[in-house]
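A quick aside before the break. I want you to see a complete sequence-to-structure record at least once, exactly as it would be stored in a machine-readable document. Don't worry about memorizing anything.
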Amino acid sequence: MKIPAIILAAAIGASGTLAYTPDAVIRGDLNGDGSLTSEDVSIMSSYVAGRTAFTAEQFAAADIDGNGRLNVYDLIRLRKNVFSHEGTLPSGTWVARTSSLTRYYTFSGGKCTCTNERTGASSELSCSAAGSTLTIDKETSDILWNSGENFVLRHADGSLENFTYYSSSPIDYAKCLTGNWYAKDGTGSIRCFNIRGVSGSVNGKPFVYKMNGSDFTFIFQDGTVSAAKMTRIDSMHFDMKWDSGRTERFTLRNISVKDGITYVNGILIANKSYSLPQSYDPGKILPEALSAFYTMQADAYKAGCNLWITSGYRSYSYQSSLYNQYAARDGYAKADTYSARPGYSEHQTGLAMDINVAGDSFGYSPESKWLAANCWKYGFIIRYPQGKQDITGYKYEPWHVRYLGKDLAKEVYDSGLSLEEFLCIDSKYKN
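That is the input. The structure line, written in tokens, reads:
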């Protein structure tokens, strides 16, 4: 399905956000004064009557409906834009864009809500319309209507802000899909969606989307429209079933690095792909993780199981010594299957622990079975699960737990995924 190109030209910019293209800012400005007035109508009337010729620039500006022809229908639309909106206060939700900022405005009576697309911060403002001006929060700007679904505000400093109609209802920013999402279908195909607010791009292809409950409509820059129904899985995953019948699993993956430490969706990560700097040194198991272990230990004891920490925090230098010992004994290739190189060990985070016996025999003990079935209740996960060796980069370690907090640990446990799969990240040394 296609929507008119002129709407897209005014609605979607190269960045993938609602925007305008420069030649569509004030469509119908035939005298080049930056506004729409009766003089522009007179110029258009003269052309339609065959009394005037247009330059290429005037022709482009006068093609109101964007069909490549100039006729009486363009004149009618221009007259409506000039004369029918005077004193009109916008209603509903509009997406407004300048060269550096995108905001959502919801107009209702003499008030409007303004939401910053980047941060989600909102403010309540007063607004009023008089003649060809619009006043928002005491700032009066010229309002230039291109159509009933698009207008431009020319502010006192001469800057332009382009408004495109979005919907009759406010945008619930909390439900927007803001973030970097990796979509994978049953064939293993992966698409990367970069979304901010209600706009974004997939593999570089810009779109805007509208949502109504679990129903989503994606409008792409080329005019293609795709509908989909979303099913939420957990805080970092949802399924999108497209109108084509294809279903994709979306995984949130926002990666940030602060002081050399990598966070994925706010979770501190140390694996074969993401290392910790030598200077990162909490010096001990972090208090929240240790407290959770003591609670788990007490409950395990009531169930007839004895748990203790055989290895907790390890410094960079200690891990270096340990890894080199293993490598000297078994060779580097084998050591890499069960021991982390210095800087790549979860033990350095202060959030990981080896329980009881760091060896295969632990997997046959009652404590191992209790730990696997219950550790998520206290905020831990079995970090290197059975059958995930090629994904985590390490052999099955039923004794190695990682603290994530109760909510996240439950989501990972319920998913049946390793942490790498849950976050859609790799764990592979680069050399």
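Two observations worth writing down. Residues 173-252 form a domain with the Lipocalin fold (CATH 2.40.128.280). The chain has three domains: 5-83, 173-252, 265-423. We'll return to this after the break.
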